[in-house]
Design goal:
By secondary structure, this protein is an alpha/beta fold. It has seven helices and 17 strands. Flavin-adenine dinucleotide binds next to helix 1, strand 2, helix 2 and helix 7.
């Protein structure tokens, strides 16, 4: 099935885009996290979101979740690793699954600017962003799992079920158990070195660990990795007033398009992007 649209990201921008597509009866897939976005919930008190003068980020997240549920919108829990141009539409790779859509709304939040030195050039040669896709390559081997969020612990546990040893590097407090062969490392990863596997991962305390596979599971993926042909402007996705990118049928909304990083801007841009998708679908259907 080819969806009318794929919305990537479940923060404020993605919520707004998904609600508008739903109201207009479009057949879309929404990929992200059922717990929405860590960023929505982080604000202690918001103050500048119209209609919610005393709300905290958690209050807003609860209100968004209730609205999504009332609208009957499903979220597909996954990280999109890559978007491919198929000529007439786009294909999205998320874990072991592929989805196809005529249009895409990127609502992925601020993309990580600082990948680790040595990371980009080893993607596909030992560095991976997806345990489900590449974990089987490391059966009986040693891997490092670098996690930015406990929601990826099931992926680290999957790695532990295959590998002989997992160096587990969570960048948050109180990590959960991922397996008896997993050793928690509290120092931060600093750089990846080595001409061939096993690679050397240098840590913030100066120590080094060695791993055949290095799995980096972050809340977002750099735009260069996700969709290399996308035009950027100072690290953000370049868009026009319709939230259109340089690629036909691809729109972007929210923090990923630039400052100010604000809920109301993200919600507004998600709304515009959804309406631009409706226009694009109508125009391309006429041809
Ligand atoms: C502590 C704090 C306080 C704040 N206070 C305020 C405030 O008072 N007022 C205000 O207006 N704003 C505030 N903000 C900013 C506000 O939270 C953000 O501007 C807003 O959440 C941006 O929404 P977004 O949808 O663009 O991105 P995000 O909320 O970052 O959501 C992006 C989502 O996309 C997902 N994603 C990314 N890549 C992928 C992928 N490849 N596949 C699938 N999913 C993906 C992420 O996991 C995330 O769920 C605050 C932010 C913080 C951190």
């Amino acid at each position: 099935m080819i969806y009318d649209c794929a919305v990537i990201g479940t923060g404020s921008a993605g919520v707004s885009a998904a609600l508008n597509l739903k109201i207009r009866g479009k057949n879309f897939i929404w990929i992200g996290s059922k717990s929405l976005s860590g960023k929505i919930a982080k604000a202690e008190q918001i103050g500048n979101y119209p209609g919610f003068p005393d709300a905290s980020g958690e209050d807003l997240a609860r209100a968004f979740s209730a609205h999504i549920e009332a609208a009957g919108i499903e979220i597909t829990e996954a990280m999109v690793n890559a978007v491919y141009d198929m000529g007439t539409h786009y294909a999205l790779n998320a874990g072991a699954d592929f989805y196809e859509a005529k249009t895409v709304i990127l609502a992925t939040g601020v993309a990580p600017k600082n990948t680790l030195p040595g990371e980009a050039e080893r993607v596909g040669r030992g560095v991976s962003y997806c345990a489900t896709c590449d974990g089987a390559l490391y059966k009986g081997k040693t891997v490092a799992a670098i996690l930015s969020n406990p929601r990826f612990e099931h992926e680290a546990a999957f790695l532990a079920s295959l590998a002989s040893k997992v160096w587990f590097l969570p960048s948050y407090r109180d990590p959960g158990p991922v397996g008896d062969n997993a050793e928690v490392v509290s120092a931060r990863p600093v750089k990846i070195e080595g001409d061939a596997k096993p690679y050397t991962l240098t840590l913030s305390d100066g120590s080094q660990i060695s791993a055949d596979g290095i799995f980096i599971l972050r809340d977002s993926i750099s735009m260069g990795t996700l969709l290399p042909a996308l035009a950027l402007d100072d690290g953000h996705i370049a868009v026009d007033r319709r939230m259109a990118t340089n690629l036909p049928g691809i729109y972007a909304a929210g923090d990923c398009t630039g400052r100010p990083y604000q809920y109301a801007k993200a919600v507004g841009e998600g709304n515009v992007a959804a309406h631009s998708v409706l226009d694009y679908l109508a125009e391309t259907a006429e041809k």
